[in-house]
Specification:
Elements (H helix, E strand, L loop, with lengths): L1 H22 L4 E2 L4 E2 L4 E2 L7 E3 L4 E2 L4 E2 L2 E2 L4 E2 L2 E3 L4 E2 L4 E2 L4 E2 L4 E2 L4 E2 L7 E4 L4 E5 L27
Parallel strand pairs: 1-4, 2-5, 3-6, 4-9, 5-10, 6-11, 9-12, 10-13, 11-14, 13-15
Antiparallel strand pairs: 7-8, 15-16
């Protein structure tokens, strides 16, 4: 009972944060998207942040829209149905396609094609043609995902 209450409260607070980011800062954030209160979205050029629907931005993620040294303010995009893992860094001007997973701690320096999983520094594609659902959750039928049979053994 208490766990369900905490979960509902967390989802409500995340929804309020997204509404604040949209209305006050002018960020383009799709419906159903969750942005952790501990994620950092660039306020230097807030209108340059574009996040699709039903995406999950986890704690410690940093999404930038400006480059101080290069003196530029650009748009940075994260697609719909994506998952961006803890402490990932998305650099200015990068576009992450729909149905993508960015692994925790990754540094995304280049565009990520749709239906891809990236990891590393710099981030590289480690799996293609993945299938994600709400908030970037991987489908159990996605290529490369092992499933257990009735006996509990991986197949």
């Amino acid at each position: 009972m208490l766990a369900k209450l905490r979960t509902r409260l967390q989802i409500t607070l995340a929804g309020l944060r997204v509404a604040y980011l949209r209305r006050v800062w002018g960020m383009s954030i799709g419906r159903g998207t969750r942005v952790s209160s501990k994620a950092f979205l660039d306020f230097t050029n807030p209108r340059g942040i574009h996040i699709g629907e039903f995406t999950n931005i986890t704690p410690g993620v940093r999404i930038f829209t400006h480059d101080f040294v290069g003196e530029k303010h650009v748009n940075t995009h994260v697609g719909s149905y994506c998952f961006v893992g803890a402490n990932a860094l998305i650099l200015p001007g990068v576009a992450v396609g729909d149905h993508c997973v960015v692994a925790a701690g990754s540094v995304v320096t280049k565009d990520v094609p749709a239906n891809s999983m990236v990891a590393g520094n710099p981030a590289r594609i480690i799996r293609s043609n993945i299938v994600t659902g709400l908030h970037g959750m991987m489908s159990p039928t996605a290529p490369g995902i092992r499933q257990n049979n009735k006996a509990g053994k991986q197949i």
